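seq:
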Amino acid sequence: MARSAITIDLGAFRHNVRRLRRQLGGTQLWAVVKADAYGHGVRDCAIAAVEEGAAALCVATAGEGLELRGVLPDVRIIVLGPIEDDELASARAAGLELVVAERIPEGVRVHVKLDTGMGRWGLSELAGLPDEIVGVMTHLATADSDLAQARVQLERFLAATADLTGLDRHVANSAAVLTLPESHLDAARPGIALYGLSPFGGDPADHGLRPVLSWTSELAAVRLLAPGQSTGYGRRFIAVVETWIGIVPIGYADGFRRDLTGTTVLVSGEPAQVVGAISMDAFAVKLDRPAGVGETVTLVGPGVPLEAHARVADTITYELASRIDSGPARARRSVVDDAAS
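struct:
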């Protein structure tokens, strides 16, 4: 029996693509499917995105692009991150488009990145662009937290690209797609919102989004702690009174992070707090009753949004989702697809 089950709802994913396309109007949607589609499965999500009208797919590395090219031979694939010199020939042969911030390679379609305030990769100004250039982009640093600063970046970008014609200009990420319509331009690059997760850390339903991933396990053991007894490494939880605890066979090696102690999961639909130290392969929950071995534990799903876990861990849903291990050695992964949902 699998230690946990991960379900990917492609119907929800398709709904999110359609929702964002409506938001964008005539602007092209370029779906960001890097990091195995944020942990959701790149093959399934990429195919569904294209079927729902995504005009291009964005990845982080040449390796991701080459893997995706084997699945979708005719779709535009844009590599957002830098590549090594020894990857250039294979990227060129596969027809990948590259984002560049310094040296512009020959014989490959490229998008020039302008640094307007992110302070990472990017040119400080645009000059002498060769014929291979097909797009110009920038990366917004604060679209999810400070729209005023995002507008400053957008204004810099628009000023720098005002005289360019015939190129795709793309700026907007998920947060900007939802709240900064003037940034939509020729194409937009939503990522996290495609997977039904809020770029703002709130309720995705506020923006008409549906979570795509759910994750369940079960109680592998149940025991009663006497006062003074503990569970887990370091005795981080010591019972003050008689306390029922359940052991869930999932840990940080599966992507349930060590700093999620204190978060809430559901045991047979009832809230249960994670207590003690989360170990590599297991964690404990505090129970209000003597539950039975085999009862379902919902780690992520209805009533247990990933955004709530992110607040406990003081991180973002991007990190949590992309770290969930859905490989067959750790979990059973299934895909459901109601295209009409």
